[in-house]
Amino acid sequence: MKFKILVALVFVNLMQAQKFYFPKTATTDSVILEKQIPELALKVITEHQSPKNKPKSTVTFLDNLFRLQLAAKDYKNSIASLNDYRKEYADHNMAGNKSLAYEIYSMAKLTEKDKKTSFSNALQTAFTTKYKSFSDPLTAKIGTILDGDVREYKKSLKTALDKQKDKDTIDYASALALCKNYVNYKTYSSIKPQVMQLFKVREQEKFIIETKNITLKNGTKLTITIVRKKENTSPLPVILTNNIYAGELVDAGMGKRAAVYNYVGAVVNTRGKRDSNDPNNPFEDEAQDLYEVIDWVSKQPWSNGKVGMIGGSYLGFSQWAAVKKLHPALKTIVPQVSVGIGIDYPAQNNVFMSYMMQWIRYVTNNKLTDEATFTNYPKWDSINTAWYKSGRSFRALDSLSGKPNKIFQRWLDHPGYDQYWQKMVPYKKDFAKINIPVLTTTGYYDADQIGAMYYYKQHHQNNKNPNHYLVIGPYDHAGAQSYGYNYVYGTGSTLIDPVARISIDELAFSWFDYILKDGKKPELLKDKVNFQIMSSNTWKHVPTLDKMHSSTLKFYLQDRKNGSSVFEKPKTEQFTQQTIDFKDRNPKYLYHKVSKQDSVYVTNSVYFESEVLNRDIILSGNLSGVFNVSINKKDFDPRTSLYQVQPDGKTFLLSTHLTRASFAKDNSKRQLLKPEQKEQIPIKNSLFMSKKIEKGSKLVLLVGVNNSKSWQVNYGSGKDVSDETIKDANEPLEIKWYNDSYVEIPVYKE
Q1: Is 305 exposed, middle or buried (0-12, 13-18, 19+ CB in 10 A)?
Q2: 146-202 pLDDT, tens per residue?
Q3: Could you tell me the pTM of the whole model?
């Protein structure tokens, strides 16, 4: 009995350790709140550092810590933790301006106390000190960093406080969130008006920034921002960016990025943005508009007649649109993480994604960007969940998100890669005419890697001698257009190799110096294809994509229970049966334990595992192969994931693939499957990767069916998938994965 009481007391104490006193009066009285937050933050810091709460990611831990210390008014340690956070986030001071507002606020509070001066004077001193300490590339980007949305921070703080109404205690997670929300609002509301004014003064001392409107021959009006260093009085090459994410600070920042490297920065906004009253139809007009924009900038007095282009994602797509009809003044492009319109967005390998609706609202709700709506992730998750659970057609997603949307519906009208998409960027023979130097950057974790690689491959397939370089490494969508973070995207705890921690900006402007100013070719570009092998701390340089690997491993879909190897072709035909009931809108979350340390998510997937590897190998390139299957329907969306199970038992995602079976052979023409007949589905356009796989590892292959709120659901009726509803599901999908199916894994040998 005493033992039970002791256990109960221990349990109560553990529960109480996660609860903190926080008076309900603090939720409505700002004076009480101001007093209670520092006390609460000190308690949260203690719990944050305890083993049960400490995040696995050091970056996350330090990010939380410096904010909590600021909330606790421990400004000196907050600054120290913020600097530690920046160093942990990226090498070479590349993140030196990250979270700058919090550092300036903390510095000002310390100066206010130490110098016994007003906060206003202290803030001016703090800002001036930090601004002078930055290199030019870091100063170019601080405008948007300092421009926090005070109203949104206030709303978030109110939401956090409302959760605590009528409560005198708060749990750890809620307390952490409350302190962070408080710090966001307190910091930006205290410094923004004055610090933005100080920033403007500094900006005007260094740059000439002009905003103009260009009227094209067809009457279209576009807004363009021109940025020059005051010290540069002679004509210079112009670096042009086409930007749909319009905003005064954003556009000026992109222009300054070029100006600090001694170019003229020109940032033109797409139709319907800023001063343009033209319709905003994303992706549709760049191929037409940019020829005239390039012509205009090349003839201005501050231009020497040479134009280059840079930008990532949509801005990367824009450069490919610009070279569909190549202007003589355009001498080079640097497309980064380029959207492959119709290839990887808004559909990846012909499977439309739910995210497209969120993005359309983001760029079309107003003449700038609707940040508040876009970043309301709980809202979008609830919309996608509601759509998925309802079983309604994918075409209904726009209505569920608020109102019908013509752009969304128009995109859905083109499920194949037809002329609608083809006219937006170069297509086949168009690539043969692109004879200017090109530098493409992307990453193994880039959401638009498939698009970036599509342009690279098409340029080489359709041009006899393309002057096109590729840099690809362990970067995500943001990193491959800025700089390499210290940690692999999504893992939070896996360090990337030191040689991969490079500045993509430095690389890009070294390239511009090479092409536009007869400078030296960037050191990294030793050959046309430059790729970083993860876990080896080396870059490799080869002339063509197919040289990224020298051989392949065929991983067959067979069970190893009979002693056979997945790397050997089966001697007798067998199959693995899989059943997917699309009517089940509450599927169980299934995991397969790969070791004592880790497991993989296997809902809607079939699991295959290799034997333990008896030597180190380097996997480098992208997955190919064929699936031999038979199904009881006319179509389905197969998806594939390849993992490494490391010698320590932890998993590492290497590559993924998603496609629509009926478009797998030809992405422009749908070819339905014949029910109950064995069919061959090629694996194309999977994600590239390059990594050393240590001896003692295993490879795990998951093959299965897409059935997710994040993508269209293909019920297999043969109708346009966008029009299918759960009523079209009928009987469950039955798949036979034949064991002569294989995924071909590329292997690089020194």
Answers
A1: middle
A2: 999 999 999 999 999 999 999 999 999 999 999 999 999 999 999 999 999 999 999
A3: 0.95
Locus of tokens 């995500």: 476
For residue range 109-131, list pLDDT tens digits in order: 999 999 999 999 999 999 999 99
- H/E run at residue 692: strand 688-693
Distance, in Å, from the CA atom of 734 to the CA atom of 591, rounded to the nearest integer, reads 21
In angstroms, rounded to a whole number, what is the distance separating the alpha carbons of residues 413 and 407? 10
Neighbours of 654 (CB within 10 A): 22
Decide the pairing of beta strands 605-609 and 679-682.
unpaired
Question: Do the strands 347-348 and 330-336 form a parallel or antiparallel pair, or are they unpaired?
Answer: unpaired
Quickly state the pLDDT bin for 493 (edges 50, 70, 90).
confident
Q: Are 625 and 683 in contact (CB under 8 A)?
A: yes
Q: How far apart are CA 300 and CA 159, in angstroms?
A: 51
Q: How many CB atoms lie within 10 A of CB 511?
A: 25
In the three-class reduction of DSSP (H, G, I as helix; E, B as strand; rest coil), residue 33 is classed as helix
Closest to 308 measured CA to CA, from 269, 341, 265: 265
In this structure, what token pair is assigned to residue 508?
Answer: 């890009």
- Asked if 407 and 436 touch (Cβ cutoff 8 Å), the reply is no
**Residue range 655-712, pLDDT digits in tens:** 999 999 999 999 999 999 999 999 999 999 999 999 999 999 999 999 999 999 999 9
